[in-house]
Amino acid sequence: MSDEKKTVLSMRHINKTFPGVKALSDAQLTLREGEIHALMGENGAGKSTLIKVLTGVEEFETGEIIMDGKSIINTSPQEAGNNGISTVYQEVNLCPNLTVAENIFIGREPMKMGRIDWKTMNTQAQKILDNLELEIDATQELENYSVAIQQMVAIARAVDIQSKVLILDEPTSSLDEGEVEKLFKVMNMLKKRGTAIVFVTHFLEQVYAVCDRITVLRNGHFVGEYKTEELPRFKLVATMMGKEFDDLADIKGSGTSSKKQSDEVVIEAKGLYHKGTIKPFDIKIHKGEVVGLSGLLGSGRSELVRAIYGADKPDGGELYVKGEKLDVKAPIDAMHKGMAYCPEDRKVEGIIADLSVRENMILALQAKRGMFKLMSRKEQEELTDKYIKMLQVKTASRETPIKSLSGGNQQKVILGRWLMTEPDFLILDEPTRGIDVGTKTEIQKLVVKLANEGMSVVFISSEVEEMLRTVTHMGILRDGEKVGELEESELSQENVMKAIAGGDK
Amino acid sequence: MDKLKKMTSYRLFWPIVCLALVLLFNLIKSPSFFEISIKNGVLYGYLVDIFNRSSELIILAVGMTLCVASSAGTDISVGAIMALSGAVSVYLLGSGETYAIPWIAAILIGLVVSVLCGMWNGFLVANMKIQPMVATLILFTAGRGMAQLITGGNNLYVKVDSFKYLGGFLPHIPVPTPILVAIIVVILATLFLNKTATKLYIESVGINPRASRLFGLNSTKIIFITYAACGLCAGIAGMIATSRITSIDANNVGNLMELDAILAVALGGNSLAGGKFSVAGSVIGAITIQALSTTLYAMKVTGDQLPLYKAIVVIIIVTLQSPEFKKYLNRIKAKRAAKTAGEKVA
Amino acid sequence: MAMVEKIKNKLRGNGFLLAVTIVLFFVLYIAGAILYGDRNFTSPQVFLNLFISNAGLIIAAVGMTFVLITGGIDISIGSVIGVVCMMLAWMMEVKHMSAVVAIILVLVFGVIFGLVQGFLVAYLKIQPFIVTLGGMFFARGLTALISSDMISIENPTFLSLANYRIYFGFITYYNNRGVAMHPYIYLSVVIALLVVAISFVILRYTKFGRAVFAVGGNEQSALLMGLNPKVTKLKVYVLNGFLASLAGFAFCLNSCGGFVEQARGFEMDAIAAAVIGGTLLTGGVGTVVGSLFGSLIKGIIETIITFQGTLSSWWTRIVIALLLCFFVILQSVFKSIREKRLAQGNEK
């Protein structure tokens, strides 16, 4: 029955390249009238890019988008809107300084005698909000409301535009259960009306609660389109992560089982938390241990380490470094205690784009030593050369600006920056994202080597396989909460995926 | 070809070319331009004059460079700080036949005032997170008023001869003192920036404050320091300007100098969006502005018409620096290339 | 009860800043009335003089408000006013053009000036500060190029416009000597108030006006919601150029002449007036009514200092700087309170 539904939109053979990265290759998506379609994939799978291509935020190189039998190309969000595609983005894309009503209506305000009819606008907006059972005042400025409410307003706006295709790009990450329920109600209502909805989320329960079909992308490739009822939960996780269950046995054996264990506790957190991102958690990390943190995007795996390192100052709980209590006011405090942190977002939080490889490498060590103890040029060069050689950084010279290096080499420079400080405890958040396979293996090997030399490492990656190869045990996170740990003996791809997915369902 | 490319990509290439063009133009117009002679034991000549007159601007530009680099903002209060610190010193020295308090004490107190002003700006920008332009607008508005308050609204004169030394000549030294002071400031600043990690810190904070925090830099402190330093530079420039006219004229000392200082920073090839900077570039920028002014004066352009030509230079430079403009040019180039390629195929 | 709630809601956030400004104006006025009531401070003419002497500032501050709401800045306003006065004087006195033609030409000049600045800001994405710094130099230099000497305007049409008094016949008061007087305003005040009223309507009741706020609130969002930020910004700078030249005309009605140094630093007065009126320099927030009161606050401080007699005029600038400081810190505190409250709201 559902197969006979009319196709509203189809994207075929979409290719898109960012400098140095193939973001989409031969990606596709098919939307039918009155269906809710989940678009799934891990970090870097190309979900966001595919949506940006569809809504005209990004251009694409080849492929075509067919809507109602006609080929279309959207060059701007306005054009996408005119073609009947409206979008709710993950980041709230509204104007905080305008009222709620305006945010719903801007660009299409009701007019009376050549001027904006505020009264009608406010009452209409209030009606829309009431329909969504949102108890907020449409005449208030948006910035007076929480991010969750703002997200609901964005949804209200998109819904009211009554387009043929509605794209919801991770709209639920800031919503609580009640709000998600409301959203689902609206989605089901729109579905009955015949709207095709693309739903991007990293919450698996939500996929199974509302979606009719699932399209999975991986590394920019189209993996497959499935009916929800035909794809069990852990199979979905496996599809997203790219491993068939039959292959599992091979990987298990290739892990390094010779990891030394020590009883010396390097890091211990008790009830550490950061409001709104990570719920109170306990964790113990021993000397020479590689701890993996696993969970889907947004599960709190990054936020957990950020709280330990003081990148986001924790709102409560206690942290002990080698048995000593530590109050982290700023990352420098953590650094002085021997911590190091390679952040997830290399571009925003890692590199200093205009500075040279040398400057980028020595910065952390220099900051640790203090402003007035400038390292001599000779020392800087020797250390930089040492780590360029050790990490095999491919750069024209040590004075090349880091921005002209490839992603993988930038990552190595950042790694070098931290190794130079000779830390006891190294946090690596997605150190291998977006870099080639060869470099990935090098980094994995390095992690194991460092641990064998006595360094404690936290390793976070979206690729379970990669973690299985390197970690001694693993913490599992779901929805901002640390929900469990897997010991070395329990580590298998299947167990991890089941733990991430939340059971056998 | 490669060599040329390498040369043009050198940071200071275009600023130096600008300055060279201005000087060359003068050389052609009046061959005596580069002549330097000694009259009455002091140096004379166009070049000396340009250098001498640009001293205050050079000193201001050094401080401004730091603010721009660390906070991507401009300190528009430097002119007012010049007037205020000058007024304090002159007031303390008094208008008697001898100094009311020792010269050095008056100068030091004046400089302390300027540093306090800079720290106030730094506090607003770094700690209160107020946009630099707005934060410094406060002192821009109040600074001259406070200076007037100190002088009682009159131009105060210092009658002691030795007061002229700073803005004129020291006995038996043929080089104008402002040039010496400017050189000392530039050298000290360069040493401090490069012999400590300060330059690296400022650039890092200016380019990516978030990443800088993660590897242990305190951006609040660093931005604060740059504004305090900028205040000090303004104070020094104020002392020279006051000494030149052996008096304080709170309305006119340093008037509009803040704009020239910002212009000097931009002309020196420094991005006003912060980040990597070159003090040497700003110095070249400052000298270029003065050379341009001197040249235009020589061409019978009056002082008050000067801004017109400055404006044209500013707009041309920033347009050429604009990434959007470059994108636009590239698009035209690409189109042309596509066209010729198409013709070849045809 | 509902009324109280409504007012409370209005006063939350940015409405509060505007309320502080308006209250401050009346507090200053009442303070002046108490201190100098015996010297006719309360006479209607003294009140109206606030408008007469600040008509140009009001217009300029309104234009500045538009620019500031988009998150930009324009520091060329003072120079534009200067060059407009000079052009008017030169065209009428040296070139003997008719007053009407001269006025139209300077307004066209303002529009073109704004168009160029707007293009550089919106389409070439050059920082507004630098663009308008160039504009400032350019206009000031142009003034000097036209004439380095002062030109007084003697054109009869222009002078009759300048001296045209509009009396409020229904109000009568008695001056120091006990003579019955009617208070009056000049043409420039009418222009200024019209500008405030029209700008208020534009900002509040037109799509363009709301787009101005949206662009200042979040340019990226505005784009994604289907607005065109570039065009909006361009229009704002054009409007501002026009208002700057109109302010120049109003200014000239008061000064009746042009000279090189005229209206130097006026842009900072306009910015100060807008900031005191509750406009945020980060963009997205501002009202023309606030800017009107911001301008009047400067006027009332000047008036009080004049009445006081012994304080010199630079006190005006110091007091304005203090107010500026007060408002800037108030805004900053407000922002952090809101952020804190939201952080807690997000927690739940």
From TrEMBL, chain A:
Question: Keyword Acyltransferase: yes or no?
Answer: no
Q: Where in the cell is it found?
A: Cell membrane
UniProt-listed SMART domains: AAA
Record's keyword annotation contains Flavoprotein: no
Give the Pfam families listed for this entry: ABC_tran
Q: Where is the ABC transporter domain?
A: 9-244, 260-504
Q: Keywords on this record?
A: ATP-binding, Cell membrane, Hydrolase, Membrane, Nucleotide-binding, Repeat, Translocase, Transport
Q: Which GO terms describe its molecular function?
A: ATP binding; ATP hydrolysis activity
Source organism of the structure: Anaerostipes hadrus
**InterPro entries in UniProt:** AAA+_ATPase (IPR003593), ABC_carbohydrate_import_ATPase (IPR050107), ABC_transporter-like_ATP-bd (IPR003439), ABC_transporter-like_CS (IPR017871), P-loop_NTPase (IPR027417)
EC number assigned by the record = 3.6.3.17
Put simply, this protein is called: Arabinose import ATP-binding protein AraG
A cellular-component GO term for this protein: plasma membrane
Its placement in the membrane is given as: Peripheral membrane protein
UniProtKB/TrEMBL annotation, chain B:
Q: Per UniProt, what is the membrane topology?
A: Multi-pass membrane protein
Q: State the UniProt keywords alphabetically.
A: Cell membrane, Membrane, Transmembrane, Transmembrane helix
Q: Where in the cell is it found?
A: Cell membrane
**Transmembrane region(s):** 12-30, 50-69, 76-94, 100-121, 133-153, 173-193, 222-241, 279-299, 305-323
The UniProt entry's GO CC annotations, sorted and at most eight, read:
plasma membrane
Superkingdom of the source species? Bacteria
One Gene Ontology term of the molecular function aspect: transmembrane transporter activity
- This one is known as ABC transporter permease
Q: Which organism is it from?
A: Anaerostipes hadrus
